[in-house]
Write a structure and sequence with these properties.
This protein is mainly beta and 115 residues long. It has one helix spanning 97-109; strands spanning 10-20, 25-34, 37-42, 51-57, 67-79, 86-92. It contains one helix and six strands. It has a six-stranded antiparallel beta barrel. A hairpin with a 2-residue loop joins strand 2 and strand 3. The protein is globular, with a radius of gyration of 13 Å.
C-alpha cells in the first residue's frame, strides 16, 4: 500500500489512554502521533470512516491539564501483527491552536528520537 502521509509519525515512548468522550469508554492507547493524526492500539476493531470525540489522558507531571480533547476520524483499522488487538489510524478533524500546541509538546517530549 502506498504511503499517503504528509508528515512522519512519531512513536510515543509512553502509551497514553484514549477515551470516547461521547460514551466515556476506553478506546485504546495512543502509540503514534503526527501533526495530522494519531494511531491507537485497541482491543476491538473500529469502523472506518467514523468520527470520534476523543480524550487523551496526559502525564500530569508534564502538562498543566490532565487530558486533551479533540475530534478525529478513523481512516483505517487492521489487526496488529501479533493478532492481540487492532491498530487504528485517525485523522484530526477540527483542532484548536491550544490543542495543537499540546500535541506538539507530546511529540517533542514523549516521542522516541529518530534512529
Amino acid at each position: 500500500m502506498r504511503e499517503r502521509r504528509a508528515y512522519e509519525r512519531k512513536h510515543l515512548i509512553q502509551c497514553l489512554p484514549v477515551f470516547d468522550r461521547a460514551t466515556n469508554t476506553p478506546l485504546g492507547n495512543l502509540v503514534d502521533i503526527s501533526p495530522e493524526g494519531i494511531k491507537l492500539v485497541c482491543p476491538h476493531p473500529l469502523d472506518a470512516p467514523t468520527e470520534y470525540r476523543l480524550r487523551v489522558e496526559l502525564p500530569t507531571d508534564a502538562f498543566r491539564q490532565a487530558f486533551l480533547d479533540f475530534d478525529a476520524r478513523v481512516m483505517w483499522c487492521m489487526q496488529t501483527q501479533n493478532a492481540t488487538g487492532f491498530a487504528a489510524g485517525f485523522h484530526f478533524q477540527e483542532i484548536g491552536k491550544e490543542e495543537m500546541d499540546t500535541l506538539t509538546g507530546l511529540m517533542a517530549d514523549f516521542c522516541a528520537s529518530p534512529n
